[in-house]
Amino acid sequence: MRISARNRLKGKIVEVKKGQTTAHVRIDVNGIIVTAAITNDAVDELGLKVGQEAYAVIKASDVMVGLD
Amino acid sequence: MRISARNRLKGKIVEVKKGQTTAHVRIDVNGIIVTAAITNDAVDELGLKVGQEAYAVIKASDVMVGLD
Amino acid sequence: MRISARNRLKGKIVEVKKGQTTAHVRIDVNGIIVTAAITNDAVDELGLKVGQEAYAVIKASDVMVGLD
Amino acid sequence: MRISARNRLKGKIVEVKKGQTTAHVRIDVNGIIVTAAITNDAVDELGLKVGQEAYAVIKASDVMVGLD
Amino acid sequence: MRISARNRLKGKIVEVKKGQTTAHVRIDVNGIIVTAAITNDAVDELGLKVGQEAYAVIKASDVMVGLD
Amino acid sequence: MRISARNRLKGKIVEVKKGQTTAHVRIDVNGIIVTAAITNDAVDELGLKVGQEAYAVIKASDVMVGLD
Questions:
Q1: Residue B32 lies in a domain
Q2: Is the pTM of this model over 0.95?
């Protein structure tokens, strides 16, 4: 599927941690760790595992801007 | 302010485009362009300009995972 | 791309309305109209047009439940 | 309450699964299953149960568009 | 409609500003101004006007925590 | 960090409840309780505790408007 979300950051999964309903998946994008909170069901359906290539996908309206 | 959002990607602003109410700000994070859709008011209050160092800030629950 | 978002509702695009930065795309999903607010850039990149088959894609954490 | 969210999909609850803090509620909307991740507290306050008529409510800015 | 969103802050509308597709509505909640970015369509459907009593409604998963 | 999010509601933390991956933090803002669902990791990193002064931070595009 091609998706309208503007941000698709390619990396490698470095951690998959499931809770009771919500899982945390960490993706290493060029040395930056991006954390995704998704459903356990999504982890199972996609078969997400440490070491896989994956994208962190983020809709532009969910990105804020910060300054030091 | 220290913020709970898990993802803070440091980069440099490469584009600021204002609409009537919503602006698009593009940040170059190590060669990856991240697009943020924020209010014009936020652009004005923070004084966002091309060339500034800035962070793309994203709550973990707004990050999805994609596979090729 | 396969995506972790739990909700992918298949339908047909019935309206594409661009603003200055934000567009509204309406998809008819079995007679229910679903409205998406996405960037103009996404509309252009995907070449979204009335009559196309398309999916409304929604992360589970963005869905609320209402009762009459 | 009348709400600004553009998308209110009427259906019937087919599953309520509570975790420690986050619950997953599945609503059958004309044969399409929509998954909502909401707080356990919301499930309790609204008394959500399998078989109830309910709406999946989604803000337009949280809807993406996908193409095959 | 009763809604699962945990946060419903009662106040009075103090500004309604429409763009081409996206409007900004400001609600005074006990002296704190809360800004909502919603569709123009929602403003029209609800007939939102300065001076009306209204709620700012926010899903718990969209709230972050900040410290000074 | 200065952040683009339009809504920063100052209050005091009155409850921190951790699940397996997702925590609920409640902040009393002038007598209104605001609930945030954030990661356990964020609670730990910020050292969030009952009694602390804290902000509920919300992006404008995540705020809806409701009418009675």
A1: yes
A2: yes
